[in-house]
Amino acid sequence: QVSPGLRTPRLPVWLCSVSGRHSVLFGTDSRLLSDWKSERIFHLYFYSGQQEQTQTAHLTIDTHSHHWEEAQREDPCSPRKRHPALEMAIRTKWAGATVSWNGTDPFF
Length: 108
Known about the structure:
Blueprint: H1 4-7, E1 13-18, E2 21-26, E3 41-47, E4 57-62, H2 67-73, H3 85-90, E5 98-100
Antiparallel strand pairs: 1-2, 2-3, 3-4, 4-5
Enzyme class: hydrolase
Protein name: Ubiquitin carboxyl-terminal hydrolase MINDY
Catalytic activity: Thiol-dependent hydrolysis of ester, thioester, amide, peptide and isopeptide bonds formed by the C-terminal Gly of ubiquitin (a 76-residue protein attached to proteins as an intracellular targeting signal)
């Protein structure tokens, strides 16, 4: 029998398989589980356990940013247009969200 704490977590946790590697994406705000209004700007943390990751990445997710304005200024073939696989995985839950890596070089 599965514990109720595992069936209904108190904090948001996602197990990810990004680029063939397993990792954990989690938040420390329990409101993300029950209040859609808290999904405006929030923080998530990412840990892959890989040797090249020395600390947990702190990400800021903005689901109401004006990402299309930036897209109009850039050439669609520009290498800066490409997004890390982790950002694309996050966008499967929050379509169109912008992800700030807060000073960490994006990996994945």
